Amino acid sequence: MSLPTFSFSTTAEEVADTFAGQIRGKNVLITGTSLNGIGYETARVIAKYANLVIITGYNVERLKLSEEALKKDVPGANIRSLILDLSSLAAVREAAVEVNGYSEPLHILIHNAAHGGGDFKLTADGLEIQMATAQFGPFLFTKLLAAKLIAAGSTSFSPRVVFVSSEAHLIGPGVDLDNLAHPTPEKYSTLGAYCQAKSANVLFASELARRSAGKIKAFSLHPGTIFTNIVQKEHNKADLVSFGVLNADGTPNKDSKFPFKTMGQGAATTVVAAFDTRLEDQSGSFLWDCVLANEKIAPHSADLETARKLWDISEQIVDEKFTF
C-alpha cells in the first residue's frame, strides 16, 4: 500500500488514521496534555486506536479535565492520568516509579510538555525552570523508563521517543553549556531560555538515537505556530508581537511570516514522528510539516560535540548514568 504525502496542512487525525495499524495495541505516554494544547490533540487522535494512552500534568485539576474530555471525545478510549512535574527531579523519580510499576509495556514516549516562558525562576534543584522542564526532567524520565521502553521492542517494532521542539531553536547561539548547572538572572531572557530549551530538544534526540544504537528510535520536530496556551500567556506577548506572530491585542497575526496551523495540523508532526513507518531508519532526525527536515536544523543544534557535552552535563545534574 502506498502511503500519502504529508504536508503543512495534514492533520493529526489523518496521520493517525493512516497508521492505525501501527498504533493498535500500543501504549503511549504523552507529557503536557492540557486542554487547548497540541499534546491534548495528540492524545485524542492516538486514543482512537491505542491500547493505552497515559496523559500527564503537574496540576491535578487540569489533568482531570483533560482525562474527562478525552473520554468524552473518544468513548471507549483507555486513558490513564499520571501526575508529573518535569521541573522537579524528585517528582520525576516518583512518576517513573509509578510507570515502571505498570503491568503494561511502554512503546512510545512523547515529550510534549514545555514551561512556556516567564521571569527567571529557579527550581527546587537550582535549575532554570524552562531548561529543567525541557531537558533535565525529560532526560531523567527517559533514563528511568529506558529499560521499560527497550523491553517493549521486538524484531518488528522499535520503541520511539519523540521531542516536540520548535523552529525557535534556530534563534540565538544555542545552549549555553557553561550556564546550565548554575544559571544566573543576568544571562536570562524569556525568549532566550525558550530557544535554548528547544535547541536542547534537538540535541537530546540526536544523541539518544546515537547512544541507543537502534534500541530506541528518537526524533525531534517543529510542530508549527499554533494558538495554544503558551502563545496566549501574557508574559510571552511582547516577544511574539515583536516577531510579528501576534497583533498588538494578542490575536494571531494572519499576515505573519509564521503562518498559523490549526490544533489538528499542529499535532500532526508529533504523530508522524511517533508512528510513520518511513522513519524507521531515520532515527535522530528532525521533522517539519510532517516530513524529514534535517537541513533545517541550526548548526549549533546539529553539532555532535555539543550534543555529547549536553548529555554529560545532564548526567551530572540528575546524578544518573544513562546506559543501554
TrEMBL record:
<dbReference type="InterPro" id="IPR002347">
    <property type="entry name" value="SDR_fam"/>
</dbReference>
<comment type="similarity">
    <text>Belongs to the short-chain dehydrogenases/reductases (SDR) family.</text>
</comment>
<protein>
    <submittedName>
        <fullName>Short-chain dehydrogenase/reductase family protein</fullName>
    </submittedName>
</protein>
<keyword id="KW-0560">Oxidoreductase</keyword>
<dbReference type="InterPro" id="IPR036291">
    <property type="entry name" value="NAD(P)-bd_dom_sf"/>
</dbReference>
<dbReference type="Pfam" id="PF00106">
    <property type="entry name" value="adh_short"/>
</dbReference>
<dbReference type="GO" id="GO:0016491">
    <property type="term" value="F:oxidoreductase activity"/>
</dbReference>
